[in-house]
Automatic annotation (TrEMBL):
PROSITE patterns: GNAT. Pfam families: Acetyltransf_1. The lineage of its organism: Bacteria, Bacillati, Actinomycetota, Actinomycetes, Kitasatosporales. This is Ribosomal-protein-alanine N-acetyltransferase. Residues 123-263 form the N-acetyltransferase domain. InterPro entries: Acyl_CoA_acyltransferase (IPR016181), GNAT_dom (IPR000182).
C-alpha cells in the first residue's frame, strides 16, 4: 500500500491519497473516503483511467497519483455534457482526442426498414459462433491494412485499434460475417454487455456499395429483435459521416456525445 499526503491549503485538512490495490487509489480526508481512482486496460491494450471524487482537491490529487504511477499514454472518456468533469481532466493535463456520438439503434424491422434486406447474390451471412477463425482473421487483417493505409488507426473504434501481442480479434465468437464461397467480405461485432453494443461494422474496400453492411445489420438487429431486445447502441466518431448516414438511415438517433481525452 502506498500512501502520500497532500495539504489542501492553510488551515485545511490534508487529503491523503492511498493505493489500496493494483491500479486503485483512494483519497482520504479526516479518515473519510472522499474520492476513488481506477485504471484498467481495454481489450485493445489502451489504459483508461477514471476518478470519482467529492471535490476538486480530491480529484486533482487522485489524478496526479494516476499520472505519476501509471505509464503514458492514459485515456479517459467523459460525457460531453459534463463540463465540470471535462475541465478537471483538462486541468490534469489531458487533451481531447476524439468526439463520439452515442446512438440508440432500433431493432424492429418495421422501424429499420431492414426486414426485406438480403445479402447480394453469392454472399451468405455466417452467424457468430459458426465462423471459420482463419477466414475471420484474414478479413480482419485485410480491413486493418486498408484502414492503416487510409484514415488511420486513430479514427477507429477500440475494436480495430492494434492490440498487444499481434492478436487482432477481441473475441472471435462475437463476429458475424458476410461470406463468399472462398473468403469473408465483411464483419459485424455485437457485444452483449449491459446493453447490446455494435462495436464494429466493416467491409473490405473492394466490396463496398453492395449492401453488405446493411445485410449484416439486418441479420444482427433482427436477431436481437427476436430475442426481445428493442434497442442496440453504437458510438460513431463525429467525422465519420458515412457511418452516421448508415445508422441514421435505419432510424438510429443520437442520444449523447462523449469525449475521449488522452495524456
Amino acid at each position: 500500500m502506498d500512501t502520500k499526503p497532500f495539504t489542501s491549503g492553510p488551515g485545511e485538512s490534508a487529503v491523503l491519497v492511498t493505493r489500496v490495490a493494483d491500479r486503485q487509489w483512494h483519497a482520504l480526508e479526516d479518515d473519510l473516503v472522499v474520492g476513488r481512482g481506477h485504471a484498467q486496460h481495454r481489450p485493445d491494450g489502451r489504459l483508461f483511467v477514471s476518478v470519482d471524487a467529492w471535490h476538486d482537491t480530491a480529484f486533482d490529487r487522485l489524478a496526479a497519483a494516476l499520472v505519476a504511477h501509471l505509464p503514458a499514454p492514459l485515456h479517459t472518456v467523459v460525457d460531453e455534457a459534463d463540463t465540470a468533469l471535462t475541465a478537471r481532466w483538462l486541468r490534469a493535463g489531458f487533451t481531447v482526442r476524439r468526439r463520439e456520438g452515442e446512438y440508440a439503434v432500433p431493432t424492429d424491422p418495421e422501424v429499420t426498414g431492414l426486414g426485406a434486406v438480403l445479402p447480394p447474390p453469392g454472399v451468405t451471412i455466417v452467424p457468430a459462433g459458426r465462423t471459420d477463425e482463419a477466414l475471420l482473421r484474414a478479413v480482419d487483417r485485410a480491413i486493418r491494412d486498408e484502414v492503416k493505409a487510409s484514415v488511420g488507426w486513430w479514427s477507429m473504434p477500440a475494436e480495430v485499434i492494434p492490440r498487444p501481442g499481434g492478436d487482432t480479434l477481441v473475441d472471435p465468437s462475437k463476429y458475424t460475417v458476410a461470406a463468399s464461397p472462398d473468403r469473408y467480405l465483411g464483419l459485424i461485432r455485437v457485444a452483449p454487455v449491459k446493453r447490446p453494443r455494435i462495436g464494429l461494422v466493416a467491409v473490405r474496400a473492394g466490396e463496398r456499395r453492395r449492401g453488405l453492411a446493411r445485410a449484416l445489420l439486418a441479420h444482427e438487429l433482427g436477431r436481437l429483435h427476436d430475442c426481445g431486445v428493442g434497442t442496440a447502441w453504437v458510438e460513431i466518431q463525429e467525422s465519420n459521416r458515412a457511418a452516421a448516414a448508415l445508422f441514421e438511415g435505419i432510424g438510429a438517433r443520437q442520444q449523447s456525445s462523449n469525449l475521449e481525452l488522452v495524456r
